[in-house]
Amino acid sequence: MANEAKKSMRVAVIGGAGFIGSHLVDALVAQGFPTRVIDNLDPQVHPGGVPPAYLNPRAEFVREDVRNLDGLSRAIEGVETVFYLAGAVGVGDSMYKIRHYAETNVVGGANLLEILANRKHSVRKIVLASSVTVYGEGKYSCPQHGIVFPSARSTEQTTMRQWELRCPVEPNLVYCSAQLTPLPIDEGKPLSPLSLYGVTKRTQEELFLTIGRAYGIPVCVLRYFNVYGSRQAASNPYTGVAKIFASDLQLGRAPLIYEDGLQTRDFVHVGDVVQATLLALSLDEANGETFNVGSGHPTTILETACNLATLLNAKVSLAPSHRFRAGDVRHCWADIAKIQKRLGFQPRMRFPAGIEEVLATVKSSQNPGETVIAHDKLVERGLIS
Fold first, then answer.
1. Stated pTM of the model
2. 41 phi and psi angles, rounded to 5 deg
């Protein structure tokens, strides 16, 4: 289908008032797509449950919750492409808000699919925002056994503060003594999420791809890595490590750095995420496929804190806590070869470029106690050791 024909399509961004969704809405409106924002304005993301000031006035806004089947059905009337970015987000609180995450992410997503299977609709394509958390622990190389995919670190290992992973040798899972070397994760890595959030996103992927194939509706799954940029909800203390660190540092408080701080993550700018998401819309090569969306470069958590402290001229001591949070992985960054080759994606920003946007966001909406309260809730439940 020609690009001009595609731009006449009415699109809906479910979760379009949020961090990534609102940037996507701006880009869609700028390109001439008739755009509808569907969002429930969750107070954890939108304090007071009011629409954010940045919400694009040229987009139609419908306040609706994906858990309301009939309301969602009405909200997508006339829509030809759905960007599904709705959901509860966060590794930490997913480990105790179990029903909330299951209802929002799994049942909410299933409601959209229920509509497509059983009601009249005009949807012709879906782009699903998934998450790096579906992978669980990363991909590694053992000098003796080659590529390995170790499972979660044992309680014994984390209690002894042995942070790096050991090589599991099949079939008896006897650990060899070789040091594992972390590698970038490609889309073929077996999925083994370690948090309930990751479990719900894996389930979403399987639901959407299965129903899409059955009913001939193309679905593209995008696995976003650690996204940063402006509009990231400062009110949510469980998401966005760069945002959380910046908030602490601007208050003159040393951020809590888990383990030894040498665990790695892939920070990708929201502008690059929008670029990838638009490519998934415009290119038929994306149909039925799953792609990583990251920068392709690892950054340690300690390096992240140091970069932010330098930018903020913060006079605090940055010391790893040597504490462990359930659900955390050791090393995780994206192999982006597939999306580069198939869709022509090229990241334009490399962390910490663009971090000033995060600093501006947290400076305008600080709540000093939120990260401390969030940490204490995890400690109370034995999720931090």
1. 0.93
2. 55, 55
